[in-house]
Amino acid sequence: MKAFVDRDICIGCEACAGTCPEVFSMDSEGISVPIEEDIPDDLLESAQDARDGCPVSCISIE
């Protein structure tokens, strides 16, 4: 599974990076950037928590 961030919606609150820093980081513009490779199985639950905690629902995991 991979994480995706809608950059047009992201407000840069850093909640995702705080919840799952192994999958999400912030770029130089203050927008969330997910790792490019598949989410490791042991981080999937944490990545889903980050998705669920996003205040603007800009994260999807597929």
Sequence-ordered SSE layout with sheet pairings:
Blueprint: E1 3-5, H1 15-19, E2 24-26, E3 32-34, H2 44-53, E4 59-61
Antiparallel strand pairs: 1-4, 2-3
Protein name: Ferredoxin
Pfam families: Fer4_15 (PF13459)
Domain 4Fe-4S ferredoxin-type: 1-29
Named CATH topology: Alpha-Beta Plaits
Estimate what percentage of residues fall within beta strands.
Answer: 15-25%
User: For the report, how would you describe the main beta sheet?
Assistant: 2 strands, antiparallel
Total beta strands: 4
Could you name the CATH class?
Alpha Beta
Instruction: Give the overall average pLDDT.
Output: 98
Tally of discrete structural domains: 1
Stretches with pLDDT under 50, minimum 5 residues: none
Provide the gyration radius in Å. Answer: 10 Å
Number of helices: 2
How far the N terminus sits from the C terminus, by CA atoms, comes to 5 Å
Global geometry: globular
Structural class by SSE content: alpha+beta
The CATH architecture classification is 2-Layer Sandwich
Q: Helicity range of the residues?
A: 10-25%
The strands making up the biggest β-sheet line up spatially as 1-4
Order of helices and strands: EHEEHE
Pfam family, one: Fer4_15
InterPro entries: 3Fe4S_ferredoxin, 4Fe4S_Fe-S-bd, 4Fe4S_Fe_S_CS, Fe-S_cluster_ET
Protein name: Ferredoxin
Domain 4Fe-4S ferredoxin-type: 1-29
